[in-house]
Amino acid sequence: MRAEEIMGEEFAVIGPDDTLSSALSLFENNDVIVVMEGNNYKGVLLRKEVLRAKIPPSAKVKNFLKYAPKLHKDDTVEKIARLMLESEMYHLPVFDGEKVVGVVGYEAILRHVMEEDLGEERVEKFLSRDVITVSPNDNIGKVIKIFREHSISRLPVVDDGKVVGVITLRDIIDKVIHPEEKPEYGEFIAEKKRYLKISVKGVMTDEPLMMPPSSPLREVIKEMLERGIGGMLVGEGKKLVGIITVKDILEPLASRKEEKTLIQFCGETDEIEDFDREEGMAHMRELLRKYSSVLEDGFLYVYLKKYRERKHGLPHVHCRIRATTPHGIFIASRDGWGFIQALKNAVRALEKQMERVKGK
């Protein structure tokens, strides 16, 4: 299946010099808005970026637009999945030559998975099991910090070993940052510290749906689409086993290509000045050589984030490697000064996990 078969031909368009107030009403029915200057494509405006903080409505669209990878009408779902994962954008514009003719969203990809044999697989095969949780008494400040550091948007809320709720970025946006009684811009800045102290239990969704590990993937996807959510908790009774997100579902699609193991760098690669894809690939291929028995037919997903701190002229970089393999999912996160040091640190942490599997 190709992009032109699953794209939506109706999409929202806005100009770079328009104000954000013009975009807010468009976000009621769109997760992404295509930014055009005349007939020239400039980028996209993402709902999550605009609603992440209180921004003056008079601000210009051009200050918040993002560059999204261009899809072509004949691009396959496998390529679309790879580009979504690499860019961390789940709604991408489709081009016919230089003309934007549609938008493909992750929802269309998930529906495609439902129709494939992949949809019959048990959801436990695709789970992220190393799940970060929070308690009902933690505060919103802690949640936001976890969201930012781990590039996630939902957290299970666990009390005494039992799941009692789930809290998402959308919950915080709707209930804390942009409640119906919106403060003025200056008031928001002044009240920010108070907002961060609000407890999780005052914002979370109580008694969230949690599906058993034996559920077919297509049933989980159906629930996600009907509820308009980007992830599902998986467990037995009230005990959490793992979580599955759009990213987890896209990975097996993205890895369907000639190479036995797909390596993908994503995140803030364009903001890390010493990022060198070729050198990074060399380190990852060495990892594959050493642990081919574990990593063969897998997917290596390397996420990078840049912090403000610098040392010896190098940026503080966070590196998170997720390895999806026939032996399970391995995740390792480490920081370092500069891209290569952060990558090496994360690789070493991942190797310690795989040594245990390799030795069996």
Summary?
The protein has 360 residues and is of the alpha/beta class.
Break the fold down into its secondary structure elements and pairings.
Blueprint: H1 3-6, E1 13-14, H2 20-24, E2 32-37, E3 40-46, H3 47-50, E4 71-72, H4 77-87, E5 91-96, E6 99-105, H5 106-115, H6 140-150, E7 154-159, E8 162-168, H7 169-177, H8 185-196, E9 205-206, E10 210-211, H9 217-227, E11 231-236, E12 239-245, H10 246-254, E13 262-267, H11 277-290, H12 292-295, E14 299-311, E15 314-325, E16 328-337, H13 339-358
Parallel strand pairs: 1-2, 4-5, 10-11, 13-14
Antiparallel strand pairs: 2-3, 5-6, 7-8, 8-9, 11-12, 14-15, 15-16
Can you tell me about this structure?
The protein is an alpha/beta fold. The protein folds into three domains: 103 residues, CBS-domain (Roll), CATH 3.10.580; 127 residues, CBS-domain, CATH 3.10.580; 101 residues, Ribosome hibernation promotion factor-like (Double Stranded RNA Binding Domain), CATH 3.30.160.100. Helix content is 34%, strand content 28%. The protein has 13 helices and 16 strands. A four-stranded mixed sheet has the order 13-14-15-16, with helices on both faces. Helix 4 packs across helix 10, helix 5 crosses helix 10 and helix 11 packs parallel to helix 13. The radius of gyration is 21 Å and the shape is globular.
CATH superfamily of the largest domain: CBS-domain
In angstroms, what is the radius of gyration?
21 Å
Low-confidence sequence ranges: 180-191
CATH class designation of the largest domain: Alpha Beta
For the record, the count of structural domains works out to 3
Strand order of the largest sheet: 13-14-15-16
Largest sheet: 4 strands, mixed
CATH architecture descriptor of the largest domain: Roll
Mean pLDDT: 84
Helix content: 25-40%
Count of discrete alpha- or pi-helical segments spanning 4 or more residues:
13
